[in-house]
Structure formats: structure tokens, C-alpha cells
Write a structure and sequence with these properties.
179 residues, alpha/beta, Rossmann fold, 5-stranded parallel beta sheet, 16% strand, globular, binds adenosine-5'-diphosphate
Length: 179
């Protein structure tokens, strides 16, 4: 059976323009795209899964208004392949930026193939201008007060500014350190 449903999993902490670029390409290839926001138990995420799902929903609905009926956003806690089976998806979409992504992505694809031989992983590359872009750098720049406007959807930029403001409030001052 040929699957026309693809699943794009990730932490999306937060979603960036690079992620949106990959989603746009996947929408050109598959009839249905499910963006799966991982709970990331093993990662200390800046945003909760609920916040990340809401951010991804807002970003994709604004970026791809014509694809609303072909695009779903779901949070998942279980093993990726189990969540895919639940949604009848047979293709994993992953983004590849540079050689540095290769080893991890290759191992992940191999593990998923060993667990579920009927599920294929496809790798897409984003536009050159996003090759350097990662959620991690976006978080670090934003929390240090840098301008990340060109790297993330505007709703995410606002959420990051809010986080940065809150972190500022709780950051110890030099007088705290001496008291
Ligand atoms: P994970 O924790 O699963 O790596 P991420 O949210 O960091 O989740 O990334 C999800 C997927 O999107 C990964 O395949 C990653 O390589 C890809 N990706 C992230 N940023 C970019 C980008 N700027 N260009 C292309 N692919 C990207």
C-alpha cells in the first residue's frame, strides 16, 4: 500500500523558519502531513509540550492557510512509530542541515527501520538561508536579549521575549550573591 501520509516529528522548542521550510516541502510531496511535537522527556525543554503544540499550530496555520485540510499538529508521548501507526502514517520526514546532522539522523533512521521495516524515513533539506538555524541557537540568542525576528514566526518571537523577560526577573543579581 502506498502511504500518502507523512509524519514530521521533532521537539520544536521552538518551531523555527527552518522547520517551516521543511514542512512546506513535505506538503508538496505528501497528501497529508502530521507535525508531531515530542514530549521530550529526556530533554529539558524551554517550552512545555502544550506550549509547543500551540506554537506549531499557530505557525503552520498562518504559513500554510491553503493546506489546512492536509495538515495536522499532534503532541506525542509514545514511541514515534507507535504514534505513526495510530495516525496511519508510513513516512517519517526529517530535515538535514549539514554533515553534523548526518550521523544522528542516520542512526535514528536505522533504529526506526529496525523497529518498523514498513516505515521509511525521508530527508529534506531546507533553503540555504536556514542551514545554520537551530532551535537551540534561537533559544540562546533570545534569552540573552538578541534579535531572533528573522528566524522564527512572529508569535514565537513574542513568546521568546516573554520567556526572556521572566528569566530576567528570576536571575540572581550581584547583591543576591553577596547576601
Ligand atoms: P529533534 O529534537 O527531534 O532533533 P528538532 O525540533 O530539533 O527536533 O528538529 C526536528 C527536525 O527538523 C530534525 O530532523 C532537524 O534536523 C530538522 N531541522 C531543524 N532545524 C532545521 C533547519 N534549520 N533546516 C532544516 N531542518 C531542520
Amino acid at each position: 500500500m502506498i502511504s500518502r501520509v507523512a509524519f514530521y516529528p521533532g521537539s520544536f522548542d521552538p518551531i523555527t523558519c527552518g522547520h517551516l521550510d521543511i514542512a512546506e516541502r513535505a506538503l508538496r510531496l505528501f497528501e497529508q502531513l502530521i507535525v508531531g511535537v515530542a514530549s521530550s522527556h529526556n530533554k529539558n525543554t524551554l517550552f512545555s509540550q502544550q506550549e509547543r503544540v500551540a506554537q506549531v499550530e499557530c505557525a503552520v496555520s498562518r504559513a500554510f492557510p491553503d493546506a489546512a485540510s492536509r495538515l495536522n499538529v499532534v503532541g506525542f508521548e509514545s514511541l514515534l512509530i507507535e504514534s505513526m501507526r495510530e495516525h496511519e502514517a508510513r513516512v517519517i520526514v526529517r530535515g538535514m542541515r549539514a554533515v553534523s546532522d548526518f550521523e544522528f539522523e542516520f542512526q535514528l533512521a536505522g533504529m526506526n527501520r529496525a523497529l518498523a521495516p514498513d516505515i521509511e524515513t525521508v530527508f529534506l533539506t531546507a533553503s540555504d538561508k536556514y542551514h545554520f538555524l537551530s532551535s537551540r541557537f534561537v533559544r540562546e540568542i533570545a534569552l540573552m536579549g538578541g534579535d531572533i525576528a528573522g528566524f522564527v514566526p512572529s508569535s514565537v518571537a513574542s513568546a521568546l521575549k516573554e520567556k526572556a523577560k521572566n528569566q530576567e526577573k528570576f536571575r540572581p543579581t550581584s547583591s543576591d550573591a553577596t547576601s
